[in-house]
Amino acid sequence: MTRRIFLVRHGETDWNLAGRLQGTHDIPLNDLGREQAADTARVVERLSGGARHLDFVASPLSRAAQTMAILRAELGLPPDTFRRDPRLREISFGRWEGSTWPELRRRDPVSLAARDADPWNFAPPGGESYTELSTRVLAAIGELQGDSVVVTHGGVVRAMLHAFAGMPPAQAVELPVRQGAVYLIENGAFELAVA
């Protein structure tokens, strides 16, 4: 991959703060999340040397779309003129969405043990696996035309770091993905940058 991807996880939500699995639930940013979105604009500007020439695409879930709108406004660009691609939405946790990991360990220990044994290929009840997530994300990324800012979710960041930076699946699935940071993917590697 010769293009550069400025990969941004959406800013914090109240469910992030509570440790709840959001998945496909549409949870808005909180105050800190909006600040983190503004911070990422400065990082993108610094790393790109001028963001006006970049392509901008985001997950349609409000926490990602809000992050992108704030980022673009901070860059002096029209906030809402970016593409939204549903293939960049978060991994579906199915019936687990809204729960915390400790709640799931008490309520569904058998499924959690199966996930622990093979987290990349495991799909929660009614949800999807990282393998399935990767298929749709790679299709979306394959359509990018040049250097791009992609605002998305923790699971998508993990899938992309595996696919484009060679991070092993077992390491990627457990990676704590930062909010308010930019993951620059370029030439088969990635760099984590913060404001």
Describe the fold and architecture.
With 195 residues, the protein is of the alpha/beta class. It has a single domain, classed as Phosphoglycerate mutase-like (Rossmann fold, 3-Layer(aba) Sandwich). Helices cover 42% and strands 14% of the residues. Strand 5 (181-186) and strand 6 form a beta hairpin. Helix 2 (31-48) crosses helix 3 and helix 6 crosses helix 7. The longest helix is centred in the N-terminal third of the chain and has 18 residues, at 31-48. The model has no long low-confidence stretch (mean pLDDT 96).
What brief labels describe this structure?
Rossmann fold, 8 helices, 195 residues
What is the CA-atom radius of gyration, in angstroms?
A: 16 Å
**Under CATH, the topology is which?**
Rossmann fold
Tally of contiguous helical segments: 8
The structural class is: alpha/beta
Could you tell me the strand content as a percent range?
A: 5-15%
Shape: globular
**Major sheet summary line:** 6 strands, mixed
Helical coverage, percent range: 40-55%
Q: List the uncertain runs.
A: none
Counted beta strands: 6
- The name of the CATH architecture is 3-Layer(aba) Sandwich
Organism: Ancylobacter rudongensis
Active site: 10 (tele-phosphohistidine intermediate), 90 (proton donor/acceptor)
GO molecular function: phosphatase activity
Binding site for substrate: 9-16, 63
